[in-house]
Amino acid sequence: MNMAGKIRDKNEAMDMDHLFSGGYIIELETGKYLSGYGKKSIRSSPLERAIRFRSKQQAAECISQHLCYVGLEAWICEILWVLLSHKYESEGVAEYWTGTVFSDQFQSAVTFTTYREAERYQKVHNLENTSMIEQQCFRREQMVIAA
User: Fold this and answer.
1) What is the pLDDT of residue 54?
2) In 1-146, where do the E strands start and end?
3) Distance of alpha carbon 18 from alpha carbon 87, whole angstroms
4) Using 50, 70 and 90 to split pLDDT, how confident is the model at 69?
5) Rg of the chain over all Cα atoms, to the nearest angstrom
6) 29: left (phi over 0), alpha (psi -120 to 50) or beta
7) Are 23 and 52 in contact (CB under 8 A)?
8) How far apart are CA 51 and CA 6, in angstroms?
9) Nearest to 75 by CA among 85, 65, 67
10) Cβ(67)–Cβ(79) under 8 Å?
């Protein structure tokens, strides 16, 4: 990876923020996200295939217009970048940078809207050798469809 947040593949450079866009998604159940809908069906998939929305409002409108099934519980989630300890790769232990220490407290993680922002922070705070940049999903608002 170079300093601009791009992966070099042969002669082509790919922007991480373009490849892995942020924004909002709709969680239908733990680990299953809205990937499509029809008149009488809802499709779910893993995070990487979820429909992305530019704003929380757009996600809420989609729920109210297309997912109006009584009792349906859905979460509007925000996709953000975080710094994870290298222990995640070597030991499978998820420890998030909180601004002062690495902690297993997911909701306390310092978050970034772009990969480049996370990369700059990592360099300024000399965390390049102890952390890696990863995209994570944060629940922001629960929507319950009432009768």
Assistant:
1) 94
2) 6-9, 12-15, 23-29, 32-37, 42-45, 73-85, 96-97, 102-103, 111-112, 131-144
3) 27
4) confident
5) 17
6) beta
7) yes
8) 24
9) 67
10) no
Which amino acid type is present at position 59? A
Six token digits for residue 55: 């704003």
pTM: 0.78
- pLDDT tens digits, one per residue of 72-90: 789 999 999 999 999 887 8
**What's the CA gap between 123 and 128, in Å, rounded?**
6
Residue 143 structure tokens: 């929507």
Q: In sequence order, which residues have a C-beta less than 8 Å from that of residue 121 and are 6 or more positions away?
A: 83, 110, 112, 127
Task: Categorize the per-residue pLDDT at 70 as very low, low, confident or very high, splitting at 50, 70 and 90.
Answer: low
With a cut of 70, say whether residue 12 has pLDDT above it.
no
